[in-house]
Specification:
By secondary structure, the protein is mostly helical. The chain has one domain. It contains 5 helices and no strands. The protein is elongated. About 20% of the residues have low confidence.
Length: about 110
Amino acid sequence: MLPEATSSLCNAGPWGESEPFVAVGKGTNSVPTCRDMSELVTDYLERAVSIRKRLDMWWHLIRCEACRHYYDQMRRTIGLLRRIPPDQPDTSTEDGVVASARRPQDLE
């Protein structure tokens, strides 16, 4: 379930103030939206985004309860999946894949 993007939820800070997001020193809004967060959460968890983007995302997570909940769900899901070893393919499946790879492909 994706976080629900509502202005009242995302603009309310931890102490109830309502202010637009403004990046320090930039003068423009660089904090990601809830939609951005839902698309970037796995990159954030894998540290595949720049430091600047991580800080912007962190700031959004501080202020948005829905995205914190979504982030926590994704973090837990990834952690659980890493604990489960992948199933080994049976011999017939493995042999079929190898045979297909060795077969000349007709591209036309």
